[in-house]
Write a structure and sequence with these properties.
Length: 156
């Protein structure tokens, strides 16, 4: 982790001994403990880092009308009760809930592009969520496949 963690030295004088991990990986989940000694006094704190992973299959880019599977997993230890997916942050009819962490779209359209948030609900009432920005390659042109252009002009 040495190349992915940092501590702001300037903040240490103000009592801020925060650790920054960037980028976070699945294997970084777990309990972190900090000990700071100032004169004869020792301060310590513990923080648990939970990690949520959202994976896309097949990997990007997704092509319009080709099936895709979004999976959401967390390092949380309790039993998973429900996974809900929200499209573009709006809980509407485009919300899908199930007892597992996957969202399958058999024929993705350009309207499926955008932000998808998975929310995991656990048996200990813990709610965790992560967002995935889905990009789809497809044709987003006119609804009719005929385009007219004047002779001598450009046609797009």
């Amino acid at each position: 982790m040495r190349l992915r963690v940092s501590v702001r030295d300037s903040a240490l004088r103000d009592g801020d001994f925060s650790l920054r991990v960037r980028p976070v990986r699945s294997e970084d989940a777990g309990l972190y403990e900090a000990w700071v000694q100032h004169n004869a006094e020792v301060q310590k704190c513990q923080v648990e880092l939970g990690v949520i992973t959202v994976t896309l299959s097949p990997p990007s880019p997704v092509v319009e009308n080709e099936p895709l599977l979004l999976k959401c997993n967390s390092s949380h230890q309790a039993s998973l009760l429900e996974t809900c997916w929200f499209h573009n942050r709006v809980p509407t009819s485009r919300t899908f809930c199930s007892s597992h962490g996957a969202l399958s779209i058999l024929r993705p359209a350009m309207s499926d592009e955008g932000s998808w948030r998975c929310q995991l609900r656990y048996s200990d009432n813990e709610l965790v969520s992560a967002t995935y920005n889905l990009q789809i390659l497809g044709f987003d042109g006119p609804s009719k496949p005929v385009v007219y252009a004047a002779a001598g002009s450009a046609a797009d």
